[in-house]
Specification:
The chain is mainly α. The protein has one domain. It has nine helices and two strands. α3 packs antiparallel against α4 and α8 crosses α9. The termini are far apart.
Length: about 210
């Protein structure tokens, strides 16, 4: 009887060993091999950021923090989609971990979108009351925004040659003066533009 029961159980045992990998493992494999549309990824970021208006004198601390949290989330989603390690220090070498779909020459298009993101964030940051900027939570969110933008810019520049220089010159052509809160972004652009051009982005000639 035991032998007969074992024979009946063998197909079931075989099915257990041949069962598909857990859902999490399958998702990880699919994620590692996914194609990423760079233009679409940065455009989604731009759409989210562009949905916010500058703060007014009536804006509360809670409203400011809620908006900044959404912007941080959108930036981190963009970075994660691109396969960037967002725990890196900005001085580290940043690489893109995703596999890109064929995209052709997209430097101008990506630069234009990133400039819109930077302009919108710059306007929002400048409209925050000074007393709010110095509050711990708001200060931490602003610092996170700066570093994630920096990591995304550095990552994209590894696959799109000359991207940082183009972004910087476009900002200058628009007369944009970046807020001091975006110190990492300023440092990156100063590094590729040089002191004379880069000084225009912080409202001075260095």
């Amino acid at each position: 009887m035991r032998f007969t029961s074992l024979l009946f159980a063998l197909p079931l045992i075989g099915s257990v060993f041949s069962a598909p990998a857990p859902i999490n493992e399958v998702n990880e494999i699919a994620l590692a091999k996914r194609d990423v549309d760079v233009v679409q990824t940065v455009q989604e970021l731009a759409n989210t950021v562009h949905g916010f208006q500058p703060f007014t004198s009536a804006s509360t601390e809670i409203e400011v923090e809620a908006t900044l949290e959404i912007i941080v989330g959108a930036l981190e989603k963009c970075g994660n989609t691109l396969g960037i390690d967002l725990s890196l220090n900005i001085d580290a070498n940043v690489v893109i971990g995703a596999v890109f779909a064929p995209h052709g020459n997209i430097k101008q298009e990506v630069a234009d979108i990133l400039v819109k993101v930077l302009v919108d964030i710059n306007v929002i940051v400048k409209s925050i009351k000074p007393e709010f900027k110095n509050k711990p939570k708001c200060k931490a969110l602003l610092a996170r925004i700066d570093i994630v933008i920096g990591l995304v810019l550095k990552g994209l520049s590894t696959i799109i040659s000359g991207l940082l220089f183009l972004v910087g010159t476009l900002l200058i052509s628009l007369g944009v003066v970046l807020n001091g809160v975006l110190a990492i972004v300023l440092k990156l652009l100063l590094g590729v533009l040089g002191s004379l051009l880069g000084g225009l982005l912080c409202g001075c000639i260095l």
